Task: structure prediction
Amino acid sequence: MAPTLEINKRPVTLTNLRKELWPGEGIDKYRLIKYYLEVSPYMLPHLKNRFLVFQRFPGGINEKGFFQKNCPQGAPSWIKTVTFKHSADKVTRYILATGPESLTWLGNQACLEIHQWLSSVNSLENPDFAVFDLDPMEGVAFSQVCTVAFALYGLLKKKGYKGYPKTSGSRGIQVYLPLYPVYSYEVVRKFCEEIFKELNRLFPAITTLERKVSARGAKIYLDYLQNAQGKTLVAPYSPRPLPGAPVSAPLEWSEIEACSFLPSSFGIKNILYRLQKKGDLFAPVLTNRQKILP
Result:
């Protein structure tokens, strides 16, 4: 009989706990669930009231995974869902994380990556942060990503804004600017586009706004198009299905200025120590709401 873990009076059935999800790295499903439970006090506030999308790897990262938007059949009755109508013929039943029991169940479903909407269920038409996504193409040195990210920090600061950076968990850096949820996605997207155009003018040799992947070359793609309803980004502290089990880790600007880390520096095995030492560096994203200045 499969073991059951009761959290907040909600039973979670656990299965195949010794399945290696990152083969050869000592990270099985048990270790993933344990990570989600331990990181939940820091991660859950960032997921609260947001539609979530998952990437699942039941066979581990060496086998093909799949994205899941709709709550699957057979999910516990206590899993909270909200139905959203994208169009006349597209309706999605999104999952909302309500507590550590939600993350435990997701871990048991081999959800190795958690993505979140940029707006909450309270204001689906109005994002509560703008996102500046620095996405390096192959051949770009990570030191260049840090240089451009720190220049973005300077641009935002000069304009009176405060952004908060995190690793993507892969090779990029994402900067969040928390906003009052009063602006449309179009307004926020245009705002990010204009700032990225300035950044591109500062670094034309190593950055690009080119949408066509094959035409970008070995440059950092300045992606403002993520600021759109229905688009998602990897959540803070979410693992990534990559060797080493990296996570999307909030950063200090001084770390970016010094480029004192690599994207692989933060993972399931060490991020909790960093959290105990530094706390949740991304916490101000939930409180320091800012206005887009005219």
About this structure: The chain has a mean pLDDT of 97. The longest helix spans residues 29-47. The domain at 129-286 is CATH 3.30.70.3300 (Alpha-Beta Plaits).
